[in-house]
Design brief:
Blueprint (H helix, E strand, L loop, with lengths): L5 H30 L21 H18 L2 E15 L4 H21 L5 E2 L19 E12 L6 E2 L16 E14 L5 H5 L5 H10 L5 E3 L3 E14 L4 E19 L8 E17 L2 E4 L3 E4 L4 E3 L2 E4 L9 E4 L5 E3 L4 E4 L4 E11 L2 E11 L5 E4 L3 E5 L3 E3 L2 E4 L8 E5 L5 E3 L4 E4 L3 E9 L5 E9 L1
Parallel strand pairs: 11-18, 20-27
Antiparallel strand pairs: 1-2, 1-9, 3-4, 3-5, 5-7, 6-8, 7-8, 8-9, 10-13, 12-16, 14-17, 15-16, 17-18, 19-22, 21-25, 23-26, 24-25, 26-27
Helix pairs in contact: 3-5
């Protein structure tokens, strides 16, 4: 009988074992990929407003005036702009074709004259602009409507945003309900009743003599005019206010004006004589406010132990490039931060806060970032992927985290149909009634999801 050659057999045995491990690893990897469910988006939670949201017209007016007064007292950077658009001419004459040609030629000149006549005002940080902007004087009973909105909607499939919730997404065709979100700023819209004296109280109005001068300056020599009659309509005030800080960002006044006057044509058009006319114009002027402050590039930051990442501080002030930013961290046993904003995690896991701040005009401005030093969750699996139970029967599902040393190994449990099966916070499933349901867990870190299909027999 031939003796067993151990030296020759050993390499073959090792090769076979390696092949077995390789094949098993491939199948395990394929199985893991096929059963990987990815992550769910984190639950949405709108940041809380600094003040209660105003509801009634009087509350909205009071809130807006409080924001304007805050700007007057704290003196952010301030600038203004204007815009004018001529919506058309109307003439009482038979030669409409010729007058239309004249109107088109003159329109741009008049619009430019209106904009040039607007006195632009501005102020730098800390400069007083009292009298350039004032709290509104209009009363709630002079309003046709008052709105204070921050809502918008997001398509859950493609992420398209819209101010209203459409029946079907124009991008992807999704017909499911859109998810409601809330912007960090309120948009306030006040529509003023036509003929209200509030227009004269709060809008910058030009006298009939000033309007006549503007029209003559823009007439390009085609005509002169007498003093017009002015009628205002669709007057509207719009404001944007940061609801987290009550800082006003913009304040805009817009109105339509119907100018009734007589045009006395001259030169090549003298044969037209004096023609009664109406000019419809829409003009607006806007005040913009820029507040000093500091904003970090991230509200939350996760780092593995001994890893480093940079935070960037964006400053709003007169000279941000030459302004010194101070960096600090609440617990240096967890991480440290240098003078450039580089955060280096230590070997200990935990949570702390990174703060950046700077001084400007006697005040300190700052922003914070919550830092988590941890081994992040990269995946989740359950002890069972399918369960068949009888009504009233129970079974416990256990979680398996990847990697095994993940720092935060907690989940929340959900069921797709509580009439079929329920699940408690510890993963104990109770069959309720015949049918099918999905019980799934979502990790608190990373929002990874794993599902078990439940079949309940009668």
């Amino acid at each position: 009988m031939k003796n067993f050659d151990f030296k020759k057999a050993l390499p073959r045995a090792v090769t076979i074992l390696l092949c077995i491990f390789f094949v098993a690893g491939v199948f395990w990897g394929i199985d893991s990929v096929l059963n990987m469910e990815g992550t769910l988006p984190p639950p949405y939670e709108a940041p809380k407003s600094l003040s209660p949201r105003p509801q009634t017209p009087q509350e909205i007016l009071t809130y807006l005036n409080t924001s304007i007064t805050k700007a007057l007292n704290e003196k952010p950077r301030f600038s203004s702009s204007t815009n004018c658009k001529l919506n058309g001419y109307s003439f009482q004459t038979t030669d409409e074709a010729l007058l239309t040609e004249v109107a088109q030629h003159v329109g741009g000149s008049v619009e430019k004259s209106v904009e040039d006549s607007f006195l632009s005002v501005s102020a730098d940080f800390g400069e007083d602009f009292t009298g350039k902007v004032n709290p509104l004087r209009l009363a709630a009973d002079s309003l046709v409507s008052a709105e204070c909105l921050c809502e918008y909607y997001v398509c859950p499939v493609c992420g398209k945003e819209d101010g209203v919730q459409p029946e079907e997404c124009p991008e992807c065709g999704n017909k499911d309900a859109w998810e409601e979100r809330c912007r960090d700023e309120y948009t306030i819209t006040l529509l003023i009743e036509d003929g209200s004296s509030a227009v004269a109280g709060d809008f910058t109005l030009r006298s009939p003599q000033e309007v006549a001068t503007i029209i003559r300056d823009g007439a390009a020599g085609f005509f002169s005019c007498d003093e017009p009659k002015l009628q205002y309509r669709n007057a509207q005030i719009t404001a944007r206010v940061n609801r987290l800080t009550n800082q006003i960002l913009s304040l805009s006044f817009k109105k339509e004006t119907v100018v009734s006057l007589n045009l006395d044509f001259t030169g090549d058009f003298a044969s037209l004589g004096i023609v009664p006319a109406e000019i419809e114009a829409e003009d607006s002027y806007t005040f913009d406010f820029t507040w000093p402050g500091l904003s970090l590039s991230a509200r939350e930051l996760s780092l593995a132990p001994k890893k480093t990442e940079a935070l960037v501080a964006a400053l709003t002030c007169s000279d941000p490039v030459n302004t010194t930013v101070r960096w600090s961290i609440a617990d240096e046993s967890i991480a440290v931060v240098d003078s450039e904003g580089y955060v280096k995690a230590g070997k200990n896991t935990g949570q702390t806060t990174v703060t950046a701040s700077f001084d400007f005009q006697g005040k300190t401005y700052s922003d914070t970032c919550t830092l988590f030093v941890k081994e992040s969750v990269e995946g989740l699996d359950l002890s069972k992927r399918r369960l068949t139970l009888s009504a009233g029967e129970t079974a416990e599902l256990k979680t398996k985290f990847s990697p095994k040393k993940a720092t935060i190994q907690t989940v929340k449990w959900y069921t797709s149909d509580e009439t079929v099966a329920t699940v408690d916070p510890n993963g104990l499933v109770t069959a309720a009634a015949p049918g099918s349901a999905e019980v799934y867990a979502v990790t608190d870190d990373g929002y990874f999801k794993a599902t078990c299909r439940i079949e309940v027999k009668s």
